Amino acid sequence: MAFARPVLTLFGLVVGLVLLVVVVGEWLGAFERLTDRVPFAVGLLLVLAGGFPIFYNVGRAALRRKVTSHTLMTVGVTAALVVGEWPVAAVVVLFMHTANYAERFTTERARRAVRELTALAPKTARVMRDQAEVQVPVGQVRVGETVVVRPGEQIPVDGTVTAGHATVDQAAITGESMPVEAGPGARVFAASFARLGSLRVQVTAVGADSTFGRVITLVEQAETHRAPVQRIADRFSAYYLPVVVTVAVLTFLLSGDALATAAVLVVACSCSFAMATPVAVLASVGAAAKHGLLIKGGRYIEALAKADVLLIDKTGTLTLGRPQITDIIPLDGRTDAELLRLAASAERYSEHPLAEAVRTAARERGLPLGEPGDFQALPGLGVKATVDGSSVTVGGVDLVPEAGDDPQVRRLAAAGKTLLTVAVDSRFVGVLAAADTLRPEIPAALADLDALGLSRVELLTGDHQATAAGIADRLGIPFRAGLLPEDKIAIVREYQAAGHRVVMVGDGVNDAPALAQADVGIAMGAAGSDIAVEAAHIALMRDDWTLIPQAVRIARRTARAIKINIGFTAGYNAVGLSLAAVGILPMMVAAAAQSLPDLGILANSARLLRRPASRT
Phi then psi for 370, rounded to 5 degrees? Predict the structure, then answer.
């Protein structure tokens, strides 16, 4: 957002230039000569043509019994036209467009989330028909048919595994950080991947009826139904307009001067009210970008300033999103390093994500790996290889039945960790535990948010109960586990129905509906999926949780700046209104005087670019 400062400067120059031209023109009598030469009907058409889009929107708002900041300016334009001063009306329309131009710089980007989600959806499926594999478009697959999924392929449907074993990565759908082993009877989801092994899947849902299809639908619905945040300026205008009209009526009743009455309406119905919000937002969007925050619209800044509930995804959001070895427990007199080296050597050529975690742990300790001989991948179980002349197997607890009786194994399993047993020549010799680890800055960031008033925090995850409990207990927050995307969006709506302003933080496709539904959705940018980033309203340019309290501070500073802008404009207009009411302020000068508060707004808003966010 490096353009924010030059754009604010440009607005200041335009406003100052228009002010100079109008004031000098009025002093030299140029506008009177213009009025004499241009028929009023032509001037009227120019004003109506130039202001039609704004007048149309004001009319629509009026039919809904809503008053906006543009309503104020429309009243001023109408008053000028009623007394025959079309040049005054034209000047007001010019400032109305200036305000709209400023606001266009702060409107959110067009949504690409649904389009990108659709692009991720499986396109074809390999179906068993007449004892042969036939590749067909996913839309032609019928419930009850059998789909064949080969290693590395995307699963195209929701269904139940009838044959085969595979390691399935379904984090995008369920949010589970660890891949799952799918065998006969297991449930699998469209858009997940069979990383290792092949499957035969009996179809239970296809296309829009699949879990992934429902994610797309939920994002669309959330974008359509999310209630917009009413701008501060619009709320102020609803109270301010009746005051202005009352003063104008009193001016006419006491003086009988139609021009003074019109001048009251023109000077009081300033476009500064329309500029108060967008110019401050523009400056804050630029300041936020410098801190590593991409904010997609002014409405989200206002909503974030008032937020009181924080809902958090786990995998990739609170955690790093990849398994790491957390415990090494040898049981036969070996050292930790010896057990880890054996396991990493056996897993040296495995493609399983847990194998990579084992190798990484060995690499970090500088352990030299042996060359595995007779390597075998055991689908759904683990691996087997010859290391240093011994037969070494590494895999789940099912691979070594007696491992389940060990108290340390039971303790690690209860903590929600994924276990890798190690056996040498069929003898159980130790266990490695893996888990998705917590981001180190999380506790301090949550304490910071609590100090800012977001004390109601809840963890929402599709992961297992035990895994979620381990993370939530460390942070001292409540949690709900085993959630699908529709469950998360329902929880967001539950809080909103209770009157809360909800912030949702997530990173995956499964979070996209909740991110879109929340008053403010925040996506982890660097590690987050493109879908989550597009569905969210704020994206972190780097995966650093300290940016979230920073975003709250920026939002609150912006809200204060907007209130100062409006207060300054209201005070200025009160003086101008008084001068116009007693006939001191001519009509054209009243129109030009509208631009002076704009300069004050620009100066106040520019402070948001310079001053770093304070810890308040």
Answer: -80, 165
**Any idea which residue has 């209104």 for tokens?**
577
Side-chain-facing half-sphere of 456: CA atoms under 13 Å = 10
Distance of CA 70 to the CA centre of its chain: 29
Contact 113, 539 (CB under 8 A): no
Predicted local confidence at residue 431, as pLDDT: 92
Torsion of the alpha carbons at 547, 552, 556 and 562, rounded to the nearest 10? 70
Rounded (10°) CA dihedral 600, 606, 607, 610:
-160
Are 231 and 540 spatial neighbours (Cβ–Cβ below 8 Å)? no
Question: Would you state the structure tokens that stand for residue 288, as one six-digit string?
Answer: 């936020």
Nearest 10 degrees: CA dihedral of 550, 554, 556, 557? 130
pTM: 0.62
Which residue type sits at 3?
F
pLDDT of res. 82: 78
* Alpha helices for 29-68 (secondary structure H): 30-37, 40-63
Helices (H) and strands (E) in the chain, counts: 23, 20
Per-block mean pLDDT, blocks of 10 residues, the chain (616 long): 47 49 48 61 78 80 75 76 72 67 46 56 87 89 92 88 86 64 86 84 86 65 47 69 84 83 73 70 73 75 90 84 86 89 90 86 90 83 88 85 79 83 89 86 91 89 82 89 88 94 86 88 68 75 84 89 83 79 70 66 74 48
If you compute the radius of gyration of the chain from its CA atoms, what whole number of angstroms results?
32
Could you state, in order of their start, the residue ranges of all structural domains in the chain? Answer: 4-108+232-293+551-610, 123-156+158-205, 294-319+439-549, 329-414
Class of domain 329-414: alpha beta
User: Contact 262/82 with Cβ under 8 angstroms?
Assistant: yes
Q: Which CATH class is domain 123-156+158-205?
A: mainly beta
Structural contact between residues 331 and 323, judged by C-beta atoms closer than 8 angstroms: no
Q: Say if residues 94 and 77 touch (Cβ distance below 8 Å).
A: no
Which residue numbers are catalytic? 313
The structural architecture, per CATH, of the domain 294-319+439-549 is 3-Layer(aba) Sandwich (3.40)
pLDDT of residue 502: 94
